[in-house]
Amino acid sequence: MRVLLGCVNSSVSLVGYDLARRAPFWYCPGNVLRACGVCAHQGALWVATDNVVQRLDARGVTLLPLPGPHENLAHSVKPLAFAGGEALGVADTGNSRVLVLGGMKALFSLSPLEGWLEAAAADGRDAAKALPPDAIHLNDFISWQDGLLVSAFNYQPFANLKRNFPSWQAAGLGVLFHLRRHEGRTVARVAALGLDCPHSLTLWEGAVYCCSSARGMFFRYVEDGHGNLREDARWPVTESHFLRGALRVEGGWLLGGSSQRHQEDGGGMCLFLLHDDGRVEDLPLGGPGEIYDILPWDRALMPGICAMLAARPQLDLPGDFPPRCVLPKEYAD
Predict the structure, then answer these.
(1) In angstroms, how far is CA 141 from the centroid of its own chain?
(2) Is 97 within 8 Å of 74 (Cβ atoms)?
(3) Spatial separation of the C-alpha atoms in residues 172 and 157, rounded to whole Å
(4) Average pLDDT by consecutive 10-residue portion of the chain (333 residues)?
(5) Which residues does residue 152 pair with via DSSP β-bridges, in sequence order?
(6) Which among 31, 79, 128, 322 is most buried, taking Cβ atoms within 10 Å?
(7) Is 0.85 topped by the overall pTM?
(8) 3-state SS, residue 36
């Protein structure tokens, strides 16, 4: 099996990895394309980063700028089942919401903090200033029940909590929200609590899976019949990496390990194969970096995109980046 890794804050932005050979076979340097969340949708690769969503195919890259008021800090991008599979969602982390995109424009948003903005407007305050940027670090989502399940680092929009990074990271403040639309408004409720930097929400066989990234744990939740999530299982995966990125593969889960932030010896990027019997197999990738997403390698889509990126101008970015990589012929079919 071949997979595509989306990497953020790294010298490479996309990596092709051959799971059978336990080795990477292609990469895109970070100064050719910036990336965070990645998904394949309707014959294109969609990449979220900074203030844009990028649509990639063999012809080039099309940019969709995202609306403010704050910097977007775009994270996950995924198709939305509740919108008939046609629309995309993007985690607008800077504005604490999920934007729903139709075609190449934003249609509407869902936010667990929508009420904060409405209260500010009712008091005559500037709603854009009432909510701080990146208030709760809302970063990922999946279609769930009649709306979305959304992950965030905290449930209160108090940005000053971030001043003490260790507490923000490992105090069990992480939360999963259930968001749905009703009469043009967001209805939000807390579905699960107690995670440390939750990421990578995945739905498989009716259960919800999630990385508790700062603890290196992988969780499984089941719906309890009352709209809440009940923890059904947890697996310790790593004590040396920030766990983020999850893909169901034959016989287990493929999980992403990022270099730990703010540590001198955080290790390089690594994949972890969590077998169904609980065994964890380490698959080191090399240098430092951060894996954000893992998805299947699309054999029809990716060769054209690889060729397009190989000819794309480099971005003027600070830092050291590897040379361009050409997709090997054996992977072009």
Answers:
(1) 8
(2) no
(3) 16
(4) 96 97 97 97 96 97 94 96 77 95 83 77 64 90 94 74 55 90 90 94 97 96 92 96 96 93 68 97 91 97 97 92 94 86
(5) 138, 175
(6) 31
(7) yes
(8) coil
